Amino acid sequence: MRIAVIGAGNWGINLVRNLYDLRVLSHVVDKNSELTDQISKDFPEVQCTGSYDSLLNDEIDAVAIATPAQYHFGIASKFLEAGKDVFIEKPMTLCSKEAEDLVSIAEENKSILMVGHM
C-alpha cells in the first residue's frame, strides 16, 4: 500500500508520522516549502512536493487529506474520480451537498471514502 498525505501542518504531521511508522507513506504534499524540507530530512524515503496534481496519475493507493476544510471537496473529488481511496480529516466538507456528492463519486468509482472521527 502507498499513501500520500496532503496537508502536513498542525494535524497532518500526525498522519505523516503514523503512516510512516506503518511503512505505507510514499508522498507528502504541502505548499509550505519549509515544512516539506523538514519532512524530507526527518523521513528521507518519502517524496515531498508542493502540488498534488502529479499524484492523480501516480500508482498511489490512497490519500489522507488534512488541509483547511474549504479545500476538502475539491481535492477529495479529484482523487476519488481518479479511483483512489480517500481519508479526510473532519469536517468532511463545509456543506452537506458537497458531502453527498463525495459519497456519490466514491460509489461511482468503487473507492473508499473515510472521514476522521474522534
Summary tags:
single chain; alpha/beta; Rossmann fold; globular
Based on Cα principal axes, name the global outline: globular
Write the element-wise H/E pattern from the N-terminal end onward. EHEHEEHEHE
User: Can you identify the CATH superfamily?
Assistant: NAD(P)-binding Rossmann-like Domain
Q: Report the mean per-residue pLDDT as an integer.
A: 96
Strand content: 15-25%
Assembly status: single chain
Distance between the termini: 24 Å
Low-confidence runs of at least 5 consecutive residues: none
Number of contiguous helices: 4
CATH architecture call: 3-Layer(aba) Sandwich
SSE-based structural type: alpha/beta
User: Main beta sheet, described?
Assistant: 6 strands, parallel
Helical content band: 25-40%
Largest beta sheet: strand ordering: 3-2-1-4-5-6
Count of separate structural domains: 1
The rounded Rg comes to 13 Å
SSE blueprint and pairings:
Elements: E1 3-6, H1 12-21, E2 25-29, H2 33-42, E3 47-49, E4 62-65, H3 72-81, E5 85-88, H4 96-108, E6 113-115
Parallel strand pairs: 1-2, 1-4, 2-3, 4-5, 5-6
Provide an overview of this structure:
By secondary structure, the protein is of the alpha/beta class. It has a single domain (3-115), classed as NAD(P)-binding Rossmann-like Domain (Rossmann fold, 3-Layer(aba) Sandwich). Helices cover 36% and strands 19% of the residues. The chain has helices at 12-21, 33-42, 72-81, 96-108, and strands at 3-6, 25-29, 47-49, 62-65, 85-88, 113-115. It has a six-stranded parallel sheet, sandwiched between helices. Helix 3 runs parallel beside helix 4 (96-108). The longest helix has 13 residues, at 96-108. It is globular and about 40 Å long. The two termini are 24 Å apart. The mean pLDDT is 96.
